[in-house]
Amino acid sequence: MSNLDLFSLLSRKIFHDLINPASAALNGMELLKYNLANTDAQIQEDETFQLLDMSIKKITAQITFFRFCYSNPTSAKNENVSINFVNNIIDDYISFTRLKITYSNDLQQLNQKHAILLANTIMVLQSLFPQGAEINYELIDADTYIIRVNNPTGKINAEILEDLHVRGSDNIKNIQVRYLNELTSIYGIKYEVISGEDNVTSINFCNTN
After folding, report:
1. Within this chain, do residues 206 and 137 fall inside the same structural domain, yes or no?
2. Do 45 and 119 fall into the same domain?
3. In the listed set 72, 89, 120, which residue is the last one of a domain according to the structure?
4. Range of the structural domain that residue 23 is part of
């Protein structure tokens, strides 16, 4: 068993144990808000109540997103998943970050490995652009897709950008970039980072198999 497979099995168990109580808390909060709407709606405007509500939504979105990123990277990697399923996981997570994302294609299905790479790339971009950025995902064909990032602030983490240009996981310092590099190697996908004008960065992914 490879280190990645061992990590995936461990992650699957951890996230399974975490998602159950988080989902229960989320469902309980929704039920509480429904009941309060009929009895004491004013309490929902309380800052403490709103903070609790937001925190439950955030932790549930994070656990769901991280589970998708880490728990099952190699199993069923060539199968297709619903784009709505992927969008919901990503959008829920991104809503608590400074990132925004749009999709250029009217997609119905997305290859599982592409979806996992997209989610893990978003994790990298969150650290690469600490002040936020606008992400556009475009599927060119079955083997190629591009992630374009508009960085209006111009601020970028130079160390992570340097790691994205490195090939060979042993030479990569950032753990998330290293994991992304491992995934692309396993999936038979190469990627290229291109820094263009007007604070636009493109990451091109292409199947090599």
Report:
1. yes
2. no
3. 72
4. 1-72
Residue 72, classed as helix, strand or coil, is: coil
CA 108 – CA 100 distance, rounded (Å)? 20
Closest Cα to residue 5, out of 209, 188, 183, 124?
Answer: 183
- The model scores a pTM over 0.70: yes
Question: Using CA atoms, how far apart are residues 89 and 196, in angstroms rounded to an integer?
Answer: 29
Q: Where are the beta strands (DSSP E) in the chain?
A: 80-82, 99-103, 109-111, 133-139, 144-150, 189-195, 200-207
Give the pLDDT mean for 73-79: 75
Give the three-state DSSP class for 111: strand
**pLDDT for 102-128, tens place per residue?**
887 666 778 888 899 999 999 999 999
Domain boundary among 20, 41, 72: 72
Domain count, the chain: 2
Residues 110 and 197 in one domain: yes
SS (H, E, C) 115-165: HHHHHHHHHHHHHHCCCCEEEEEEECCCCEEEEEEECCCCCCCHHHHHHHC
DSSP 8-state assignment for residue 203: E
pLDDT, residue 47, reads 86
More confident call, 3 vs 178: 178
Tell me which DSSP letter residue 58 carries. Answer: H
